[in-house]
Amino acid sequence: MPSKPAPIKKAAGKTPAKKEEKAHEKAHEKAPEKAPEPAPAPEPEPAPAPAPAEAPHAEGEHAEGEAHAGDAPAHAEGEAGEGGEAGEAPAPPPEEPKPPTPPPPPPPKEPTSAPVDLFIEDKNDTSVTIIWSEPEHIGDSGLDGYVIEVCKDGTDDWKACNEEPQKSCRYIIKNQTTGDRLKIRVVAVNEGGRSPPLALQEAVLVKEVADRPHIRLPRALRQRHVAHVGDKINLTIPFTGKPKPVVTWTKGGEPLDTKRVNIRSTDRDSILFIRQSERDDSGVYEMCVKVDDFEDKSSITLQIVEQPGPPASLKIVDTWGFNVALEWTAPKDNGNTEITGYTIQKADKKTGEWFNVLEHYHRLNATISDLIMGNTYKFRVIAENKVGMSECATMAKEEAKILKTGIDYKPPEYKEHDFNEAPKFTTLLPDRHTTVGYSTRLLCSVRGFPRPKVQWMKNQMIIGDDPKFRQICVQGICSLEIRKPCSFDGGTYTCKAMNDHGEDVVSCKVEVKQPVVADAEKK
Q: What pLDDT digit, counting tens, does each position of 12-54 carry?
């Protein structure tokens, strides 16, 4: 009958719905225990309310709709309720998929340690210059830069001086008010944040540091500076002092002539410049640098020199024998430097050519000797200093004439030397050995005055003009040449020298040998 299966279908539809609700509640309770962090889980759908018994058809439809709207197990149970047997137990629903576990967060990055060694490098009326060293510990995050912060003394209103971190370990805090006291600190910055600040121990007064002025005069200018007329003068004198010293120059206690001398001063040095020097530029220049009530002075002696003028006068004081005495006076213009010497020149009136007699002579008088008798001479003197010699000379108005009278020349009497000498051989005749057919020569030397006569003899026999022998005697060297001697030409040879004062003889032996013939040639 169609009316009986309805209760069974109702029971089958209710049981899965309750189990599904319990399964969703258990999953909702267990999800927070498994996950390390709470994660949003899908809310379970509310279980449908039980349908009234009077409408079994509607309840079946509701169960079917619940099976479609719910999980897969509910749908499976509904199907089993419809087509299967009522006594079978439904399969347990599968567990829901767990949400993914998020990765652990990275460890936080650490800032660097504080910078070290913060100092004041310099300061003036409107700025303060600071320097420091990088932190001892930087870490893996590196160092992005430094932030410099200041605040007025007595307040805690710290303000950053630089908008972005800077890498340099030196910073000039500008545009400050003179007389303010500033507290200064430096902070290192990286991805981990700000490091502990490094502050100066005491507040800094914004004011120029007053250093006593001091002129550092170069060693070359500590003595007299000498230059030639027309030279360009360019002297640089460095100095120190804070704030910027006031530089003044004077010459001999009077202000400088700005038309002649130019002065250019900076914070560190002062330059004295003369485009084309003149004699009037010589003198003592004094430089003064002043800071507040302190000052330092130094002087420079400038000497502009040129060639001297000629001696003022020259005259001939005396003339005697072969000598002339001269006197002169120093030049009126020494070229602004001392005279180092004089040059005295003479000229014979006949030729008119000038010759130097004395050079670099230091006295104002001189005696000129070794003049030629009978000649007339003119004299002049030239002055000399370290620049050079005077362009012109001073000439004596008088002339010096060396007279011939009053001088008797008696030549000394000399005893004539007696050069007469008997002949004497200075080189003997050595014994000679020669071979048949080979010419040989005998040599000896003899001296004597008058020139001795030489005679050659063989075995006490005068050789004479025999063509086999050649006799030569030049400058006391006597030689006898035996031309292609034979075995009969051997013997005792004698050279005899004779003059009016005597004679001398020298002898030697000459041996003529037969040539050696080999045994093969004899056969």
A: 344 444 444 444 444 444 443 443 444 444 444 444 444 443 4
DSSP output for 349-399: TTT--EEEEEEEE-SSEEEE--PPTT-EEEEEEEEEESS-B-SS-EE-SS-
By the 8 A CB rule, do 274 and 193 touch? no
Residue 58 dihedral angles phi and psi, to the nearest 5°: -70, -35
In this predicted structure, the answer to whether residue 3 has a pLDDT above a threshold of 80 is: no
Distance of alpha carbon 390 from alpha carbon 345, whole angstroms: 14
Contact 383, 310 (CB under 8 A): yes
Question: DSSP state, 331?
Answer: B
pTM: 0.42
Q: In whole angstroms, how far apart are CA 391 and each of 140, 277, 361, 455? A: 84, 20, 17, 77
pLDDT recorded at residue 186: 94
Question: Which pLDDT tens digit goes with each residue over 68-127?
Answer: 434 433 343 434 334 444 445 566 777 777 777 777 777 777 888 899 999 888 888 889
Walk me through the domains of the chain, giving residue ranges and CATH numbers.
Answer: 1-21+49-83 (no CATH), 116-205 (2.60.40.10), 212-305 (2.60.40.10), 314-401 (2.60.40.10), 421-513 (2.60.40.10)
Query: Exposed (0-12), middle (13-18) or buried (19+): which is 110, by Cβ within 10 Å?
Result: middle
What's phi and psi for 17, nearest 5 deg? -65, -40
From residue 507, how far is each of 76, 453, 457, 490, 491 by CA, in Å?
A: 169, 16, 9, 13, 10
* DSSP states along 461-490: EE-TT-TTEEEEEETTEEEEEE-S--GGG-
